[in-house]
Specification:
mainly alpha; two-stranded parallel ribbon
């Protein structure tokens, strides 16, 4: 009941519908939900990332590339960490 109340209050604060508010248990779960949701909603078949991303994103990309047929593209970085 408290979770549903929190969902309604957050929705009200940001002008959203309560059913559009999703709580996750951790950043990894949130990242997975966001990336998979964007891919599904847009119909895109590629993810562009870097080798220095968080391990959760790297793992998700490996999973998507190996099992979901998503093209994962790694962009290069300069020694200073700037994406090129």
């Amino acid at each position: 009941q408290k979770v549903e109340l929190a969902r309604k209050e957050i929705a009200r604060l940001i002008g959203a519908k309560p059913r559009s508010i999703i709580f996750t248990s951790c950043g990894t779960e949130a990242l997975d939900l966001a990336v998979r949701g964007v891919l599904a909603a847009t119909g895109k078949t590629a993810v562009v990332t870097t080798a220095i991303e968080h391990g959760a994103l790297r793992g998700l990309c490996r999973s998507l590339h190996g099992h979901q047929g998503i093209d994962v593209r790694l962009v290069s970085l300069t020694p200073e960490g700037v994406v090129v």
